[in-house]
Amino acid sequence: MWQGLFLCSSLTLASFGLARLPGLAASGISPLVFALLMGLIAGNLPLSRYQPEVQPGLKFATCWLLRGGIVLFGLSLTVQQVVALGPGVLLLDVVVIISVLLSGYHIGTRLLRLDRETALLTSVGSAICGAAAVLATETTIRSRPAAASMAVATVVLFGTLAMLLYPLLYQFSGMNEGLYGIYIGATVHEVAQVVAAGDAIGPEALANAVIVKLVRVMLLVPFLLLVGQWWLRQQTCEEGAAAGRLVIPWFAFGFMVMVGFNSVVDLPGSLHQALVLTGQVALAMAMAALGFETRLEKLKALVSAPSSSA
User: Fold this and answer.
1) To pair with 87 at 20 to 30 A between CA atoms, which of 6, 96, 254, 300?
2) Are 151 and 118 in contact (CB under 8 A)?
3) pLDDT in tens, 35-76
4) Could you read off the pLDDT of 183-233 as tens digits, one per residue?
């Protein structure tokens, strides 16, 4: 197992180094993105196809490290932050998530002729919290690594475009700084992208954007429970009564426990930062493993293959 974990660790270390380079740090691109890209490049090298000894470590990263990273991600949110903006923000986030999920899934499967897994994962990443939501949903529905890689790449591309364009469009929006911050938090994909876009507007926009975004992150838990039941019913209808059983995302409950813990326990700053960083490293290692297991020919097949629901 250690060979695969060493590979993931090396790719993760390199991705954090790239994300901190002066020219790239200002872009707001998460180390998770670099980990996926580096894993994708390494996994498609000719020699990488003949290294079965790395597979146990890769599977450990995409399973247990991924779930542990999602749990520690809960330390980025408190209940007090959610309550501070009132029920209107929660309602706004629910409406945004539902509308993006429904429209994204139907446009993806019926107009763009994507397979159902890729359409769902891309919609989830756009609606909730980017790569972390894609990975959590990929674990719940047990999708193919290629579908998750395609979804992450799409979410990162359009999230980055939004991060760059939103500050430029602010002067034409007619909104005040605080309201535009709520708009940013409700529509931009990744947390890092929200921070970058809100900071470019001003402190009030940044504060509102981050809190609204973190409420969207919290809604990942009920979404995983609902999508798991829906996906099981879809599989059962297509493959028969023995298609499988519901995958309960226990890590999602761990995420909620950490949110509650972070709300009532004031950890020392250094310990809190260390735990958050540990979660980011675990997620980055999972992304590196996911990219390493994705073959470019499979990505091409996802784009060219007709949708199963079309």
Assistant:
1) 254
2) yes
3) 878 888 888 777 665 577 888 888 888 778 877 887 887 887
4) 999 998 877 678 778 878 888 888 788 788 878 887 888 888 888 788 877
Give yes or no for a contact between 290 and 62, defined as CB atoms under 8 angstroms apart. yes
How many residues are present in the chain?
310
CA 266 to each of CA 71, 255, 261: distance values in angstroms, whole numbers, following the listed order: 18, 17, 9
Confidence category of residue 307, pLDDT binned at 50, 70, 90:
very low
**pTM metric for this prediction:** 0.65
Contact assessment for residue 82 and residue 32, using Cβ atoms and an 8 Å cutoff: no
Query: What's the angle, vertex CA 142, arms to CA 133 and CA 243, rounded to 5?
Result: 135
Question: What does the block give as tokens for 104?
Answer: 């994204």
Rounded Cα distance between 17 and 21, Å, is 7
- Cβ atoms of residues 159 and 187 within 8 Å: no
SS (H, E, C) the chain: CHHHHHHHHHHHHHHHHHHCCHHHHCCCCCHHHHHHHHHHHHHCCHHHHHCHHHHHHHHHHHHHHHHHHHHHHHHHCCHHHHHHCCHHHHHHHHHHHHHHHHHHHHHHHHHCCCCHHHHHHHHHHHHCCCHHHHHHHHHHHCCCHHHHHHHHHHHHHHHHHHHHHHHHHHHHHCCCHHHHHHHHHHHCCCHHHHHHHHHHHCHHHHHHHHHHHHHHHHCHHHHHHHHHHHHHHHHHHHHCCCCCCCCCCHHHHHHHHHHHHHHHCCCCHHHHHHHHHHHHHHHHHHHHHHHHCCCHHHHHHHHHCCCCCC
CA–CA separation, 272 vs 270, rounded Å?
5
